[in-house]
């Protein structure tokens, strides 16, 4: 497994408060597993103090067939991809 730390904005669509689709890095991603809530995780992000962030971990596939595992968190105004795993 290869981990890549990233801090990029993402658009996430939710159904019943669970992520189902995402737009990230110029691609549409379809979530293909049951997302895991990361409510108690402590992450740091650029420009924000260390605090518990509300987020999710899930696997998703894009239109070209790439599959990644994502850690995403909700910032003040939008969603951010914190890590990706291949």
Salient structural properties:
single chain, 86 residues, mainly beta, six-stranded antiparallel beta barrel, two-stranded antiparallel ribbon, 9 strands, 69% strand, globular
Structural domain tally: 1
| Low-confidence runs of at least 5 consecutive residues | none
Helix content: under 10%
Number of strands: 9
Amino- and carboxy-terminal Cα gap: 6 Å
What is the CA-based Rg, rounded? 12 Å
State the helix count.
Answer: 0
Largest beta-sheet characterization: 6 strands, antiparallel, barrel
Instruction: Round the mean pLDDT to the nearest integer and report it.
Output: 84
The structural class is mainly beta
Q: In which order are the strands of the major sheet placed? A: 1-2-3-7-8-9
Shape: globular
Strand content: over 45%
Encode the helix/strand succession as letters.
EEEEEEEEE
């Amino acid at each position: 497994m290869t981990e890549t730390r990233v801090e990029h904005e993402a658009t996430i669509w939710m159904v019943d408060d669970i992520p189902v689709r995402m737009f990230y890095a110029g691609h549409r991603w379809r979530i293909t597993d049951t997302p895991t809530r990361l409510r108690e995780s402590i992450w740091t992000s650029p420009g924000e103090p260390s605090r518990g962030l509300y987020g999710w971990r899930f696997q998703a596939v894009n239109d070209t067939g790439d599959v990644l595992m994502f850690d995403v968190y909700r910032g003040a105004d939008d969603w951010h991809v914190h890590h990706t795993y291949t």
